[in-house]
Amino acid sequence: MKFHMIAGGPKPVAPFSHAVETDGFVFVTGQMPDTPAAPGVLPEGIVAQTQAVMENLKRVLAGLGLGLEHVTMARVYLTHFREDYAAMNAAYAAYFASDRLPARTCVGVTGLAYDARIEIDLVCRRP
Question: In 1-127, which ranges are E strands?
Fold first, then answer.
């Protein structure tokens, strides 16, 4: 098993690795909608927060020599599920080819770090 911390990656909000790799699978820790340059500072609204989360996920994947095309499963956590679900889906879908969407679970939660509206984690398969 390999435990990865990505240089220049998002600042962890708790004791965890950016990703853990085992048997060709890469499990990417849920990312928040802040940036490495401004930890804890969140953009306004679900679209901007979804885009920020996806960019953080791309940073972690790039640090591992992977990309979004390697994602097999995504889990999305929303604190304002009914209000944000449709807009999040539109922003999220823009990151994937329409014929290569990962499997996905999306759930409503009562709270996230930094009072974020969204968090997304990933499971990837190394080619």
Answer: 2-4, 19-22, 25-31, 71-78, 103-108, 118-125
**Which of 52, 60, 123 has its CA nearest to residue 92?**
52
- What residue segments make up the domains of the chain, in order of their start? 2-125
| Burial of 122 from C-beta contacts in 10 A (0-12 / 13-18 / 19+) | buried
CATH 1.20.120.740 describes domain 2-125: no
Question: What's the rounded mean pLDDT across residues 9-37?
Answer: 93
Round to whole Å and give the CA distance between 25 and 119. Answer: 20
Nearest-angstrom CA–CA distance, 6 and 28? 11
pTM above 0.90, yes or no: yes
